[in-house]
Amino acid sequence: MTEYFASSQLDQLSAAEPVERLITQYLLERVPEFRDLSELRRKGWDNPKGDTFFKNQRQNADNPDKKTSEWFFRMMKQIAEELHISTDAFSINPPYGRKPRILDLCMAPGGYLYTALQKVPGAEALAFSLPTSNGGHQVLLRQTQGVECRFLDVTMLAADMGTDTIPASHPESDGFIERQLQAREKFDLVLCDGQVLRTHIRPEYRESQEAVRLHTAQLVLGLEHLEPLGTMVVLLHKLEAYRTVSVIRRFSTFSNVKLFKPSKSHCTRSSFYMVATHVQSQHDNAIRAIAEWKTMWNMTTFGTKEDYLRHAENAKKEEYVQFENFGPELVRLGRDIWRIQRDALARAPFIRNTH
């Protein structure tokens, strides 16, 4: 019997460790903002008050009352507004005679889509969102003409990810969802800002690799259904992580890439946004990236731990080789991201009061 993926975080990290060290050392030697941030992170890890600070944030996010949910919705609208001012992300121009089309792959509570619709009058939108019955956030975006919302788990869209045959022995063989996007269905703007929810009810076998499954599903669905020269907005974490660097490097070969971190919200966290504009979605490098992300999703959904580790080792070797050329561009793109997080952490009470 096939034992489906159940690797530990240590297994996952061991494959990436050499290239992570290379990237970290490169940045420490060249980027003062990153050096400062690394020291502040160390102070935060050493201070129990830091654990309490982030624990309280997680509790508020996981168990929001009505007031907290509405505050979160407003905050996401503000972040989207700031992102647009900084990057012009929502300025899309479809061919004459056709309405703009937006795909939001993880919509709830809907603040990002709300702002995008405000910036693109008359746009049509298709949005996916995890059902609240499965632990998803409540959608606060009012019903809007031209906007269709489908409640589903995007990590279970096997047909859309290129897998038509599900092994009968798979723990969730009956849980995969029929195709949602037709091959020729294209969008001018794609929002990929979903992240794994601690409230999401899912089988144990998915726990260790759910972030990879969700991330790759969004990238594949977004890029494969993006109009040529369209725009993608992608939520990423920890800029120096090799998988994050890999995504940015790949997009840089077939689009114009900007990075954005809000200046008022989520500043102490490592999260930020990649805005890719003028995306050549039919470029050979884009097609190769889609194939690689499909493989990663397939490995973490149907493969064994050994399959995944072999594949991750090869991916790590490629990134190790590629980083020498991409390093200067990463520094240029990332300096403001590290600066904003550094300044926010320096003001945080669990850092400010340490001696």
From TrEMBL:
Residues 99-277 form the Ribosomal RNA methyltransferase FtsJ domain. SUPFAM superfamilies: S-adenosyl-L-methionine-dependent methyltransferases. It comes from Clonostachys solani. GO terms for molecular function: methyltransferase activity. This is Ribosomal RNA methyltransferase FtsJ domain-containing protein. GO terms for biological process: methylation.
